[in-house]
Amino acid sequence: MSSDLILSVEVEAPAGTTWLALTDWPRQSEWVLGTTVRVLEGNGRSVGSKIAATTGIGGVGFTDTMEVTAWEPPLRVTMRHLGSLVRGTAAFQVVANGPTRSTFVWAEHLDLPFGLIGRLGWPVVRPAFSLGVHQSMKRFANFVQDYSVGEQ
């Protein structure tokens, strides 16, 4: 069984700046709650690059390894989750809303783990997961306002 989650946030920055801030993988820890991101293979900015996102609190967590499956700057990047716990696909999209504003859309299509237990548990886990992504996206909107292209 799979589940979809699609959230968006308005950003007070041009689409190009939003794209650069979004795909600055090592700096995602500044806005994704409890997560550090690093590039494992490739340059992180091309199809086939592999990225690891480690999420946790107090030493307890997991690593979500992803492979870039589409790289379409400054519009969209898609990834395939490669782990045993997190499987499925993710897409980050940037939509221009004029010269100084944009929208960031985060979409997840997750294959739920643990069979029947995962299917039964998802309605309990989904609200917390959605809240975490929503809070991260709000933090991103603030992060990108102060983002300097030269900081990459």
Structure description:
The protein is of the alpha+beta class and 152 residues long. Helices cover 26% and strands 43% of the residues. The chain has two helices and seven strands. It has helices at residues 15-22, 115-145, and strands at residues 2-11, 35-41, 50-57, 60-72, 76-82, 87-96, 102-111. A seven-stranded antiparallel beta sheet has the order 1-7-6-5-4-3-2, with helices on one face. The N and C termini lie far apart (38 Å). The mean pLDDT is 89.
Helical amount: 25-40%
Distance between the termini: 38 Å
Order of helical and strand elements = EHEEEEEEH
Major sheet details:
7 strands, antiparallel
* Percentage of residues in DSSP E strands: 35-45%
Tally the beta strands.
Answer: 7
Structural class: alpha+beta
Mean pLDDT: 89
Radius of gyration: 15 Å
Which regions have little confidence, pLDDT < 50, spanning 5+ residues? Answer: none
- Tell me the overall shape: globular
Q: Please, how many helices?
A: 2
Q: Strand order across the biggest sheet? A: 1-7-6-5-4-3-2
Topology at a glance:
Elements: E1 2-11, H1 15-22, E2 35-41, E3 50-57, E4 60-72, E5 76-82, E6 87-96, E7 102-111, H2 115-145
Antiparallel strand pairs: 1-7, 2-3, 3-4, 4-5, 5-6, 6-7
